[in-house]
Amino acid sequence: MKTYEAIVIGSGVSGLSAAYELKEAGKTVLVVEEDLWGGTCPNRGCDPKKVLLSAVEARNRIKQLNGKGFNEIPTANWEELQKFKRTFTDPVPENRKKQLAEAGIDHLSGTARFLDDSSIEVNEEVFHGDYFVLATGQRPTILPVEGKEYLKTSADFLSLPVLPKEIIFIGGGYIAFELATIANAAGSKVTIVHHNQRPLKEFEASLVEEAVHQMEASGIQFAFDVETQKIISEGSRYRLVGKETELVADMIFCATGRQPNTESLALEQANVVFDKHGIEVNDYLQTSNPKIFACGDIVSRKTPKLTPVATFEGNYVAKRITDATSEPIKYPIIPTIVYASPKLAEVGVTKSHTSSSDQVVEMDLTSWFTYHRVNEPVAKAELTFDQQNYLIGAAVISEQADELIDDLTLVINQKLTKKELDSYIMGYPTLASDLSYLLK
User: Fold this and answer.
1) Which CATH architecture is the domain 148-256 placed in?
2) Is 110 left (phi over 0), alpha (psi -120 to 50) or beta?
């Protein structure tokens, strides 16, 4: 039996962040991966999605300036887009293994299964670990309806060789909105089906309504209050059947959420408690087994399931194992972004979560030079200030919301005031040069 001071199960950003930190601290480390090396984000998640979105952003910018310097709106070539995307995704698994080897970290492909609270079996070989880091992530959920075998997932969409002419996305979360935006810009007829009237429930309702309005104007259709009951195959097309609604498309994608990858781990053998949301941890990301930690999307916490959060948690776990910190994990404020068109972004305390002493300032930025010069159809911000007039939260909608929200996150974290920002000279015109005008 081979022994390691730390065994990491999962090679996504959280697992690898922990592995490299542990190795740097002098620990012997083994990383085990049963699927694609590198995990979801660089292979079939945020990275390939954003590569495809780059074409959407370029097309939308030209579309906004149609008649103002451009006379034609370009069409997307899906095959070329996929070829470009693969230049990012194809090298990832081998590169990750190469980087681990260069760092002196052992790595093994296979499914890890706990035999007891300190050993696992991989490919019929047993390994002992002084500590374990569980970072196996999540996978798309498939609706348990009749005909579920006909449903595709986000991973399927991101690797489509040919884009269908008509697509249905089931779900009202950020994945459905983002993939619908890509498909629509690439020329598909797109419908988003949601089981109630309130998509993107974590985001401010007024801005979500504006996003839906703008997406409808771009050609995306919405079918609200439709509970999917079954999917029927009709030759080369598929029919979505609801209680009072039926829709037909060339392909139907399920974007109703994600579920933790816990089944193959045999966690009960290691006395690790878990539920349908993932592995339960304390404020030190420690499981019910004190020698086993968990980080990233596999964790059963309300913390947003985002790549930067997973990295943050992986780094923390390594520091905790090596006694580089004895403090519980403390998250900074975390921005969240929907990469639709327009984009939605939030950070901190937003309007629906304010206290009686907070003040919310709603601003229409559409006429501001930053947005007007590129003819954006909508740009709005809802800013939350505390009693001392410090910015404590923001919700933004625009094509540049992803960039602005990071600037506002910095303002909140550093408690920057309008007076302090006015003492700096920013490049103009930029989002940063607007910041002072957004503060009180």
Assistant:
1) 3-Layer(bba) Sandwich (3.50)
2) left
pLDDT tens-digit readout, 300-331: 999 999 999 999 999 999 999 999 999 999 99
pLDDT of residue 202 exceeding 90, the answer is yes
> What is the longest distance spanned by two Cα atoms in the chain?
71
- CATH of segment(s) 342-438: 3.30.390.30
Q: Where are the domains of the chain?
A: 2-140+259-321, 148-256, 342-438
User: Residue range 161-178: average pLDDT?
Assistant: 98
Q: In which band, very low, low, confident or very high, does the pLDDT at 256 lie, cut at 50, 70 and 90?
A: very high
Homologous superfamily (CATH) of 2-140+259-321 is: FAD/NAD(P)-binding domain (3.50.50.60)
Question: How would you classify the pairing of strands 359-364 and 380-385?
Answer: antiparallel
Give the global pTM.
0.96
Residue position matching structure tokens 């700096």? 424
Long-range contacts at 239-245 (CB < 8 A, ≥ 24 apart): 240/168, 240/170, 240/193, 242/193
* pLDDT grade for 334, boundaries at 50, 70 and 90: very high
Question: Are 2 and 77 spatial neighbours (Cβ–Cβ below 8 Å)?
Answer: no
Domains 2-140+259-321 and 148-256 share a fold: yes
Half-sphere exposure (Cβ direction) of 56: Cα atoms closer than 13 Å: 24
